[in-house]
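Worked example 2:
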Amino acid sequence: MTAPLRKQRLAMWSPPRARSTMMMRIFEALGCAVFDEPFYPYWLKTLNKTNDPGFHAATTNHESDWRKVIDLVLGPIPDARPRYYQKHMAIHMLDEVDLQWMGEMCNCFLIRNPAEVIASMSAFRTLEPGQAQNVEEAAKLVGIPQLRRIFDRACEVNDGTPPVIDANDVLKNPTQVLSRFCATVGIDFDPDQPIQWEAGKHDRDGAWADDWYASVYKTTGLGPYREQELDIPSELLPLVDYCMPTYEHIAQFKIT
């Protein structure tokens, strides 16, 4: 039996706007095949998120039946690559989705400070809770409460705490964080080899990429970390407070 952290398929779970596309670029550069948010078209179609950027492109170009998506996730690894890095969003795992497939994966987590996630997400989705009782629903649009559910499930199927990395830590100290993470999951990492990729859209990007990945298109590698000056609107502060405990719980296990 393959140890949980040495399985060929790596599921990197995160909320949206956690620099997850940057991480996908990194592991593509490290020689992994990549799968870009395979359950996103299912989530869009099931919830009829017609106002989400890329709705039409996603739902017409990709599989939207969650059962068939699982078959793809567990199917042959493209391009004869040794490892399969899959970018997954906990928000896409609606209650009807059978999570048994997680047992076939090396489940890992990418986190980012909720204030940064919410500031970034607010440019794409309306998040203002309006009333106190709507904070939970607004938080679900960010995808952080769902992350705790998937994290707890991963602890069960991984037989222990799954590997966790913080997106900001990757930018602050990429060689140290990535070398330790890769050692944990059994991916080769040469600290002396620059991590670089081609600018623009990549072949394995989802059909929605033009609507979401504009900033990543401009990159060819990891830039220096720049602390963000966030001006969170007062109406979004309750949302940050609601999401923070989940972030802090998962962050206590992060690789640094």
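The mean pLDDT is 92. The beta strands are 9-14, 33-36, 84-89, 106-111, 164-166.
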